[in-house]
């Protein structure tokens, strides 16, 4: 295993949920020299106390990217958009990734670690989805399609510039902080909004944020990770069971949306000028009994999730009580 101590490391999306925690643990535990880039630096001002150099950088600005990549040993790319129109997704998730990987290769970066998602798979409703499953490059949903295409262009640019590339595909990342599967879901429950499809009995795939960070760090350190992609998933539960933990904080009942209505909402997104919060990608993920084996990450990286669902939810609910709901 390669040591990251003293290595110059760039984290994109460092103002986001995963990126901020990654930057923090790289500085604290790995003793790396960390530069974090993003837009809303005020949200993560505490990272400066860890010695992290925060820079306000637009990843669509190629000149700024060239400056911030120059001199870095490793690049961790966690910046992405989940919601938005197709043009925005193409620019941020695909075009910016392509430019960032190409620039990293040209500037002599040792390894590029790309944060992808399980949503890249062209998946059935039920089945075992391993890392060799084809990517959903032409998916109708913006996030699924652009994240799939981001992997494709990342590999192309890494090969073109002789850059070492590793990819992780995490599931629903939760934990203390402003993540979609933590604060995001809690706020929906708080406002009596539905948080699953049907009765919530389909599979939910939580993975604690620190375990995802550990996978990323192992991808940077392990010689086995070059050119590989890894499923990063922990325990499997169901949507209702997971969301009920948040609902108990505010003594509410979780709600679901009927499948036929969800499908109508997803179809409505095809109409110009119509934007609903549910697309085909969400339906596929929220209405499935798929499994995502992680044996490859365990065998090649030595990755082993350390935070149980019970412990992770306890940490998350305590944070929600302190920071979001103080009633």
Structural topology:
Blueprint lengths: L7 E5 L4 H12 L4 E6 L14 E4 L5 H8 L4 E4 L8 H21 L4 E5 L26 H20 L2 E7 L1 E3 L5 H11 L5 E2 L5 E2 L1 E3 H13 L7 E4 L4 E2 H9 L8 E2 L1 H10 L11 H7 L8 H7 L7 H15 L4
Parallel strand pairs: 1-2, 1-4, 2-3, 4-5, 5-6, 6-11, 7-10, 8-13
Antiparallel strand pairs: 9-12
How would you characterize the overall build of this protein?
The structure is a single chain. By secondary structure, the protein is of the alpha/beta class. The protein has a domain at 8-175 and 204-235 and 291-307: NAD(P)-binding Rossmann-like Domain (Rossmann fold). It is 41% helix and 15% strand. It contains eleven helices and 13 strands. It has helices spanning 17-28, 62-69, 86-106, 142-161, 180-190, 209-221, 239-247, 259-268, 280-286, 295-301, 309-323; strands at residues 8-12, 33-38, 53-56, 74-77, 111-115, 164-170, 172-174, 196-197, 203-204, 206-208, 229-232, 237-238, 256-257. A seven-stranded parallel sheet has the order 3-2-1-4-5-6-11, with helices on both faces. A two-stranded parallel sheet has the order 7-10. Strands 8-13 form a two-stranded parallel sheet. Helix 3 (86-106) links the parallel strand 4 and strand 5. Helix 1 crosses helix 6 (209-221) and helix 3 (86-106) runs parallel beside helix 4 (142-161). The radius of gyration is 19 Å and the shape is globular.
């Amino acid at each position: 295993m390669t040591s990251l101590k003293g290595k110059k490391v760039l984290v994109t999306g460092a103002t986001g949920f995963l990126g901020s925690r990654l930057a923090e643990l790289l500085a604290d535990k790995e003793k790396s020299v960390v530069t974090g880039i993003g837009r809303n630096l005020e949200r993560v001002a505490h990272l400066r106390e860890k010695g992290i150099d925060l820079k306000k950088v637009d990843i669509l600005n190629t000149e700024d990217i060239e400056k911030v990549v120059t001199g870095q040993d490793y690049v961790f790319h966690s910046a992405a958009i989940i919601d938005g129109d197709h043009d925005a997704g193409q620019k941020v998730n695909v075009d910016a990734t392509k430019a960032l990987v190409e620039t990293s290769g040209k500037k002599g970066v040792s390894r590029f670690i790309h944060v992808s998602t399980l949503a890249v798979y062209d998946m059935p409703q039920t089945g075992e989805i391993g890392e060799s499953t084809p990517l959903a490059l032409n998916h109708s949903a913006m996030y699924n399609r652009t994240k799939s295409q981001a992997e494709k262009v990342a590999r192309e640019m890494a090969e073109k510039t002789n850059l070492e590339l590793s990819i992780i595909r995490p599931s629903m990342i939760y934990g203390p902080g402003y993540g979609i599967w933590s604060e995001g879901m809690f706020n929906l429950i708080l406002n009596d909004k539905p948080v699953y499809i049907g009765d919530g009995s389909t599979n939910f795939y939580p993975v604690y944020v620190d375990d995802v960070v550990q996978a990323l760090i192992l991808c940077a350190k392990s010689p086995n990770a070059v050119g590989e992609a890894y499923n990063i998933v922990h325990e499997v539960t169901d949507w209702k069971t997971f969301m009920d933990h948040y609902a108990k904080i505010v003594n509410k009942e979780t709600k679901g949306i009927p499948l036929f209505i969800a499908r109508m909402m997803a179809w409505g997104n095809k109409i110009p000028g119509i934007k609903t919060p549910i697309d085909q990608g969400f339906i596929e993920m929220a209405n499935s009994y798929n499994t995502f084996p992680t044996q490859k990450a365990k065998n090649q990286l030595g990755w082993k999730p350390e935070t149980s669902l019970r412990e992770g939810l306890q940490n998350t609910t305590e944070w929600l009580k302190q920071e979001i709901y103080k009633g």
